[in-house]
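Q: What structure does this chain adopt?
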Amino acid sequence: MERKGSRYVVLALTVLFLGFFTIGQAAEYDHEVQIKKISFSWKVSGDTLAVKIAAETKGWVGIGFNPSSKMKGADFILGYVKNGKVKIRDDFGKSKTSHKPDEKLGGTSDVTLIGGEEADGVTTVEFALPLKSGDKKDSELNVEGDTIVLLAYGPDRDGFTARHKFRTALKVNLATGTFSKLK
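A:
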């Protein structure tokens, strides 16, 4: 009789654990935007923005924040997965049509890699950024106001040099998740 009772306790604990695990996974990001074949998910936690970008590509995925004109002045994060390893880069929009790594322009890399994968033709990259890094090559992210977000992905080729295959611009409220497409 004691063994039978133990099995019920173990079963109950297992169900409870799986329930918490499932809830935790579902609540990983608070907001998500899907445009065509790319998605941007995020969560604001204290002074940090956690981000997941996924797109139907075997190449790079990228996001930019608060450009002054087209790509100029934007804080870009680009990433790709090659042989199971995630490569990520913190860039700055040098002109309307180009960007370079922050570190090559006198700034610092302020992105923290969380993870990523390439599976079934989809590249996913997850990272965290400070809302206010203090780096002159990063934009300050205002959680309560509108943030201009640039989303893009490259062709099915790893690396940071290929031109985007798709791009779009959004106005996003990072606190509420409301957004509108620009252009």
